[in-house]
Amino acid sequence: MIAGSAPPVVEPIESDRLIEGEPTTEVINDYEADGTYVGEWMATPGAWKVRYDEWEFCHILSGVCELIPEGGEARRFVKGDSFVIEPGFSGVWRVLETMRKRYVIRLGG
After folding, report:
1. b/e string for 66-96 if b means 16 or more Cβ within 10 A?
2. Cβ contacts of residue 33 below 8 Å, gap of 6+?
3. Checking phi first, is residue 80 left (phi over 0); if not, alpha (psi -120 to 50) or beta?
4. How far apart are CA 82 and CA 77, in angstroms?
5. Under DSSP, is residue 4 helix (H, G, I), strand (E, B) or coil?
6. Can you give the pLDDT at residue 2?
7. DSSP letters of 34-80?
8. Can you name the residues that pair with 39 across neighbouring β-strands?
9. What is the DSSP letter of 15?
10. 85 Cβ partners below 8 Å, 6+ apart?
């Protein structure tokens, strides 16, 4: 059972990854065991570079974002959308409207 009682962690995007805006993120990690994490993530508008070594399932609860793979075209996600980011993904995460998502992360692929 996911209790949802973890304290939120709020952080700005690191300057070496920042592309535009002054986004901040908030993470509430509700579950952690054996390299699996479940929780909720929020971000304010902006864009930054990302590189994933982990596997992540995302379900958008509110807001609008885009994922832009290196050398690829932007994919837009809105409330109700779900998607998976696989290890090795590299590109840009852009938040167009403050967003919130539920996630399941599995380290090591």
Report:
1. bbbeeeeeeeebeeeeeeebeeebebbbbbe
2. none
3. left
4. 8
5. coil
6. 55
7. TTEEEEEEEE-SEEEEEE-SSEEEEEEEEEEEEEEETTS--EEEETT
8. 29, 103
9. T
10. 52, 55, 56, 58, 67
pLDDT above 70 (res 5): no
Distance CA 17, CA 11 (A): 13
Residue-averaged pLDDT of the chain? 94
- Mind listing the pLDDT tens digit for each residue in 10-67? 999 999 999 999 999 999 999 999 999 999 999 999 999 999 999 999 999 999 999 9
**Model pTM?**
0.90
CATH superfamily, region 18-106: Jelly Rolls (2.60.120.10)
User: pLDDT-based confidence at 7, cuts 50/70/90?
Assistant: confident
Task: Confirm if 101 and 59 have CB atoms less than 8 A apart.
Answer: yes
